[in-house]
Structures are given as C-alpha cells and as structure tokens.
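Q: I have 146 residues here and want to know how they pack in 3D. Can you give me a structure?
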Amino acid sequence: MFKHILLATDGSAASEHAAKLAVSLARTHGAKLTALYVADPYPYIGVGEINPMGYQAYSAAAQQLAAQAHSTVDALCKQGGSAVALQARLVEDVAAASGIVQSAKDEGADLIVMGSHGRSGIARLMLGSVATKVVAESPVPVLVTR
C-alpha cells in the first residue's frame, strides 16, 4: 500500500514512538523510509551578521541533534527481521511544518508519520502545533501518534 514513508523526527520521545511505528509500517509494506529533521531558522535576526559565531553554533547544534535523531531511527531500521531502506535528510532554515510538507512533495512520499506533543488549551489556540499545520497543508495522508 505505501511505497515511501516520510518520518518527521526531532529526537523527542514522541518522535521516537512515531519512528517505531514508521519503521514497522515500512517493514510491513516493503516501503522506503525517509527520516526528516527540520531545523528552524536562526531565531536572532540581525545578530548573526554581527556575531557569525552565534549562527555557526546554532547550525552545528542543529546538525548534531539531527544526527542523533537519525541514528535512533537507523538503529530501529536494523532491528528485527528485514532491514528497512533508510534515507536521512536535514532541512535547515525553514519552519518545521513547511519543511515537512515540502519534503514530502519533493521526495514523493505517500505517507507522513509524526509524533504529537499534545498541546492543549490557550497555547494550541494561539500557536497551533506542527502536527496540526502539517495535517492541514499536506497533500498526502498524515499519521500522527501520541
């Protein structure tokens, strides 16, 4: 049924649960799996021009966190029965929801799997969540796990 699954991961416990589910689905369907880590844009506009070390440190930290998240998914892909074909991707300088949706289009994914942090109350009404935005904007089905 699924040929290419895009897993949005940020290294959190919620995304690790989503990774387990995505790997299981990929194994069941014989699908290719792309693990995507999206690094938000540098939050201090103008400061990077004055102090480029701040931007470099931010970028290096994002790359390290992405490598850790991808390593976790890679280990899950190698466990169990047959190995799952994994492609690790890092997208930088874009909002998480936009990066996930655009990557799904670019990669030709037919399913997005991601974790939810379960925002509620005022924070959800005012800010929304990445998962909510992805569900609203995605041209392909989105499986959101708790």
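Q: Anything worth noting?
A: The two ends are 23 Å apart (CA to CA). The chain is about 50% helix and 20% strand.
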